[in-house]
Input
Amino acid sequence: MMPIILKDRKINQYYIEPFVGGCNSIDKVDGLRIGSDKNKYIFEMWKGLQENKERPCTIDKKLYDEARTEFNNGTNNKFDDFTIGWIGWMASYNGRFFDGGYAGNYLKRDYIDEQIRNTESQIDNIKDIIFHNKSYEELDIPNNSIIYCDIPYKGTKQYIASKNFNYDNFWEWCRNKTTEGHSVFISEYNAPLDFECVWEKQVTNSMNTSITYKPIEKLFVYKNSIDDFWNS
Output
């Protein structure tokens, strides 16, 4: 997917992710990068990791519950936002950030340790990313950028920060950004009829520790830009 998104990237052209989440795509991109997330705790976590802030290397259920209470109450009595973000991202099942229960261990598999090791392996690759804590509509985007949107997929269980996501507004924003001269790519299962699929792949998603499903993930662009895309 990334070779398609980046195939026409120019020198000093910005790569933008307005829904940066776990940085699982942007950490594989070089050059000028901006990542934004509406969840302030995720934003503070990545900013803190850029500074290599001190963080717990083990997260038991008690620590998780204490951080979840702070998150639910919007307080910082025991933890700062970075630590709440770290605990929530590392120890919530399936990356659901205090919305999927405590990950813990299952059949001798330590999900939290795996998540910590995977996230810490990204640190060197995210050090020069410019992070923002903004929604996609609020984000200032440099001219002629490449924008990749990994949005909350419609019809799936939403994360806390993405509930009530307005899909009509989002797709109209994509049309407008394309018209402004940006190259806009969107990951989703389906899109409005005026968007074209340029890539697809079957993926495996976990609903819980025993149930998985294999939907077709697709990459869309606005049809008004499709001739330029295929002819470039």
Summary: The helical segments are 2-6, 40-50, 61-73, 81-91, 111-120, 123-126, 167-179, 226-231. DSSP finds eight helices and eleven strands in the chain.
